[in-house]
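Hi F.,

I've been meaning to write this up properly since the lab meeting, where we talked about keeping a consistent format for the predictions we share between groups. The idea is simple: the sequence comes first, exactly as it goes in, then the structure tokens exactly as they come out, then a line or two of notes. No screenshots and no reformatting. I'm using this chain as the first example so we have something concrete to point to.
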Amino acid sequence: MFTDQFAASIAEAEKLIATAPHIETPQDLGEGYQYLAACIEAVLHSNWAGELAQPMFISGTGPFTKQGLDNPDTFYFGATISDDAEYVVTGKRGGTVDLSFQILAGDYTDTNVPASVMAFDDRELNIDADGSFVLRLGPEGADDDPNHLKLPTGSTQLLVREVYSDWNVDRGTITIERTATAGQPIPELTAEKVEHHYNKAGRDLVTRVKTWLAFPKWFYLDLPVNTLTEPRLTPGGLATQYSSVGHYDLADDEAMIITIPNSEAPYQGFQLGSMWYISLDYINHQTSLNSAQSQVDPDGKIRLVVSKGNPGITNWIETTGHAKGILQFRWQRLDRELTKADGPTSEIVKLGEVASHLPYFSDNAISAEDFAARIADRKAAVTNRMQG
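Output, unedited:
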């Protein structure tokens, strides 16, 4: 049977989920099985939707196929490429605050982060007044044309990230063609090809689960709990992204107050992640905020409160019952280095004492009805994005 090996891979992945070291509650395990379902969907989609001879941009993660601490403000697209072929990428910028490109050599695994062999954002390209652009990538570049780039040796993936501070603006568009095979039909499926797709999807499934279980240990869990690092260039080669990271462990009656300057960066965002290394539910809960969505205090700082219970402020970041999790700030499209002064500070207080620790509590206070309206706006915006 074509699916025998894939079924065995599902069983192997299920064991990895069921025995994950961070599982402490029924919620942890239940979300693990939900995550497994999303991983199965994602690897089937990626293995059956694209062909090396006829590449397409495939959504790498979304509300229901999460991986790699996905940013709720970002659309992720990826295409499989080869360094010996030429490609034409055609797009229109839309309302994104940051449009970036990255070329990888290799794949993410539980023992390896692939080499980032090229990374840049659209400021390095010639773009028409209406936001349209054409980017050529191949074995030969053109020194006098920033939109015609040479692919580094070993290139295997082209990743594109569109970052939106406002979830209601018009989306951009992006397509890719391999010039030598553009317009040609995809070869008919054979039994060998079908078996290959299923077997590779199975291998990808196990690798995907192993990989993202390893990442928190590599980059977060050895840090002191309930703290955040100074801003630093994000590992992995992104051109203009800094990040500040940490992990939290809060009792039901505790809150983490995070204070950070509202920077001049075009994009500044914060989110929580679960121990499965994926975003928390950002549709029905406020588990992330970027600077455009946040209440900014009169002193120019943003004060976020991470807690299970509602502290009654606009910038409440909901843990959705996760006593432990990941903390992540991102700054993108920067034109200067960030320092410690640009980064966050944090303190742990009792939930009932939050008001006394916020110097502008009255400015930040919000009624239950108004907070519910914020959630309704989030859900509507995500629904519109998915339909766009």
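Notes:
The chain has a mean pLDDT of 94.
The chain has six helices and 18 strands.

If this format works for you, I'll send the rest the same way.

G.
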